[in-house]
Amino acid sequence: QFLATILTRRHAGSVADRQGPQQAVRRGVAALLASGLIYAAAAWLPAPAGLRYLVLIAGRLLVGFGESLMMTGVLTWGVGLAGPRRSGKVMSWVGMAMYGSLAVGAPLGQALYGHAGFGAVSLGVILVPMLAGLLSLTVPPIQARGGSRTLGFMQVVGLIWRPGVTLALQGVGFAAIGAFVSLYFHHEQWPHAGWALSAFGVAFVLARVFFGKLPDRLGGPEIARIFLLIELCGLLVLGLAPALPLALLGAGVTGFGCSLVFPALGVEVVGQVPAESRGTALGAYAAFQDMAYGVTGPLTGLLAMWLGYRSVFVAAAACAALGIGLAVHILHRDRARAAARG
Length: 342
Known about the structure:
Order of helices and strands: HHHHHHHHHHHHH
Number of strands: 0
Radius of gyration: 20 Å
Oligomer: single chain
Strand content: under 5%
């Protein structure tokens, strides 16, 4: 799924810019509906298990494609409606909606599977995108700004790679907790590993609710620097914790720190590109996060084999430190440009 998402961000951004974000959202809905139909085929198809497994993989690839279109389209649509000056707040609320759906969807899917099998899960995957598509019809459309003036994908990457790489460095901490915190707790013989994920998620959401306006008010690189420092501290507390309470505290502090980096640096991205290339820029920006999520698990898994689970979180803290340095560089560059213009 991550692979499909990364490889289709360019297409999603092009659709959002040239045909309008509502078209990207509708295509995303169609892809997610198709994935539900494929899941149903995998559940009920009278075929060997190996063939049904391949069908299921095809469904996962479509989920990645649909997610790419949906997220790029919704972000571009939201910024278009609210205006670039509120882009940080838009990204904060879109992120809360996305992570909230993950929090609700996993136990709901497990309940459906436990009561009625995978066929019921596939019906849910069909129903939910249908509701999303109907709801999107109530949102005022915005006109596509693209055309011959739209920048190419690699041109956009050349403009936004600094905030993109900073975002990827932040994403290592999020991915490390998602992949290894349960194994870490089990190794240390601490109970309630799920509480660590809950602490991370609650702190993440609370930070966006109470501080989601800060990137628009104070500037993206400054907020990114502060929250990357909070993430770094949380990861060190988690990785070096001698007992369960400090580990839970570290997970919560990490969630708080991770919360505003995406919208903060997203403000920088929106300001770096012309309006007609905004969808491509947001798609490329999100792809940096996708790459971090996709490679962190395998690479830190090797590190855990060599040096233990604690090393995973210390390494993630080192990545956050690199992100702080890059955020400071972006901040100084922006100030130098502002001084030159003024």
